[in-house]
């Protein structure tokens, strides 16, 4: 095991023993009904969980950057996730759109690049041809 595990600031565990149509949970915490995005069964799917994880991480990072720069909090992050492929080779396409209303567009682009480098979830996705981050003046509709 990587020795950095012993110096973790926080650790958690997610458990799923039922598959896509079931439940996933964090011991003594969150319990989520899960379902495939390809049916109309109630539940949250992996695409939604990924979009929430990335948008929360990027937004929290942007909030820290705004605070460090003594700016008002005006950033917003929207993450779109698409499920593509065919049997035995499925993939996610992930696109994060970042809007920082309180600054000029060049500053917003700089803040986006910094957030992309600092956000832990973004670091996990970095280098994937399926992951993009863009600074926007206005949010576009789902791709």
From TrEMBL:
Pfam families: OsmC. It comes from the Bacteria. SUPFAM superfamilies: OsmC-like. Coiled coil: none annotated. One of its GO terms (biological process) is response to oxidative stress. Gene3D superfamilies: 3.30.300.20. Belongs to the OsmC/Ohr family. This is OsmC-like protein. The lineage of its organism: Bacteria, Bacillati, Bacillota, Bacilli, Lactobacillales.
